[in-house]
User: Fold this.
Amino acid sequence: MNSQQNCPGTVLITGTTSGVGLYAAQSLLKRGWRVITANRSTARAEEAAAKLGLALQNPEKLLHIKMDLSDLNSVRDGVKNLLTKLDAPLDAIVCNAAVYLPRLKSPRRSAQGYEISMATNHFGHFLLIQLLLDNLRSSPRSSWKSNSWGLESARLVMLGTVTANYKELGGKIPIPAPADLGSLAGFEEGFLDPISMANGKRFKPGKAYKDSKLCNMITIQELYKRFRGSPIVYSSLYPGCVANTKLFRNTPKIFQWLFPWFQRLITGGFVSMELAGDRVAQVVSDPEFCISGVHWSWGNRQRKNRIQFSQKLSDRIMAPNRSKRVWELSMKLVGLEEKS
Ligand SMILES: NC(=O)c1ccc[n+]([C@@H]2O[C@H](COP(=O)([O-])OP(=O)(O)OC[C@H]3O[C@@H](n4cnc5c(N)ncnc54)[C@H](OP(=O)(O)O)[C@@H]3O)[C@@H](O)[C@H]2O)c1
Assistant:
């Protein structure tokens, strides 16, 4: 498929039943990419894609595979299945799927017994990346051009967020608490019941989401540090506040009604799903995003024709000892050995 004219490559994207992931798939298909989606329900992924006419327009360029990111066994099975279906290496991976469950009274547990937001948003993607890194490295899209890997590199893209970046105002919101992994005591102690937070402290469901996104952003920075010379471009992005996606389905109904309105009229931060999806596709595809280790943003207040910039990240993401330890503990908690 990659060898076909006008096909820049094959991209795997997680979580496309709705929201940013669905519209990113649409934008990538429009740009000619072959898109493989990973979802816990392939039927719902097909249904969502059909509603946008994606399957009709691109019958040979869209494939759905089953993968429940909250379950490490399902991630392993999904990757095995994926590898049997590929006739060439992947050219890009987009880690997009996530859950946000701010109203849980007590921790919900994954198949492996981990708190569900961290399990889905971080551990599932962390394992997926580890299992597919070698495959992505062999993408023919990356070729050595005089002193760099060229602009059409293989790319690994992570959805980050403003609320996980303490450097930005949105990352300092004290309700329920800013993202902070503390001493990592919860991870160090095995992250199983009764532990539910990375810092080992009391369960705060809204913070559990922010912490998991903090781990996502740390993962990109740590990949960049560890594999700086590799042909893969590692990036994260904040697509803007897409205040009307299903991500907010667990928030109170009044919040779901007011939040998009507030973001549109008061903060000016509102971004449509189409624009957010297109921003993801730009980071995957466009030459100007071929800089590794960058967290891309278009700012919090949306302005017409504003272009992307490299957003500064807090020490909670960048501190080398911390990110190294998050990596080591994540390897252990997903059941992998560090390669020496
Ligand atoms: N919305 C925003 O304002 C915003 C801002 C910054 C960053 N983001 C990030 O953007 C990404 C997409 O969020 P969104 O707003 O588009 O939310 P969304 O509409 O709820 O989409 C989330 C996707 O993740 C999937 N998913 C959830 N749990 C899964 C699991 N266990 N296994 C596989 N897939 C699973 C969902 O599928 P199901 O139908 O199976 O649940 C859905 O397809 C997230 O990473 C989020 O953190 C969003």
Remarks:
- Strands lie at 10-14, 34-39, 62-66, 92-95, 154-159, 232-238, 294-297, 309-310.
- Residues 14-21, 39-41, 44, 68-70, 96-99, 120, 159, 161, 213, 238-239, 241-243, 245-247 surround NAP (CB under 6 Å).
- The chain has eleven helices and eight strands.
